[in-house]
Model the fold of this input.
Amino acid sequence: MQSALDPSGSGADAIYGIWHLFFWTCAGVFIVVMAGLSGALLRRRTGSLSSAPEMPPPPAERRLDRLLQAAVALTATILAIFTLASYSVGTTLFHSPDNAVEVELVGHRWWWEVRYAGSGFATANEIRVPVGKEVRVTLRSDDVIHSFWVPNLHGKMDLVPGQTNQLVFTADRPGTYRGQCAEFCGQQHAFMALYVLAAPEQEIGRWRERQSRPAAEPASDSEKRGRQVFADNCAVCHAIRGFKEEGKIGPDLTHVVSRLSIGAGRLPNSRGNRAGWITDAPTLKPGVYMPRFALPPEDLQALLDYIDKLQ
Done:
């Protein structure tokens, strides 16, 4: 569940703790203020409306002054505590460890490009990290302002064109954590999701080894035909390592079948959804840069057969 109230990382834990501090303190202040207001409303009024208000006796005036001073002191104390707590959480969230796993995340309209330091490969719309290891994400934008937010793991951080930001998080337990662009970036902002998959380090190592391989060679005649259909229609935007590597506009498709979703979380990654995406992506995600492809049925099936090899 995508929720900041279900923390699974050190950054989210810190944010969750300060959220509780703010919530219960403000709830206590609200209760006290409402109780005082209710008491004032229910207190019996003396004197007529036409008579001039009487000045309170000196003892009552002194009590009122002391009450006001106590309220000001309490307010200043609460604000000081909030300030110190915010500073403490900030120093916890924004640090730069020496041995962190390095990931580069580039925001595009409307998908995420993911690169791992020293790996030589790129994926899209999901980050795979080892459990318990600090991960430093370097954030860049290729077009407009985006915002990286995986609430179960950490707070938000903007991706600003011409500027590089960094965020460090740790996934404390295995799982799949949904993230979202949290800064309005255009028509398909709502469908710019990503996933962080946390698994044991050995499993992540095996996954990275598979991802570093070039694309599998087509075996059947249909797969060979599908690769030619890809070269004729798709390679201008999409790269497949070991075959066509020029396309840089869209996501790298070398191992596209291994991903959870297509269209940055728009659809589950199934053969049928891939067919619909190829045929009419603008209807599924209006404004997306990928055009419609009116392929003959035999060419579409051959292309899908070839894509099925990209695991």
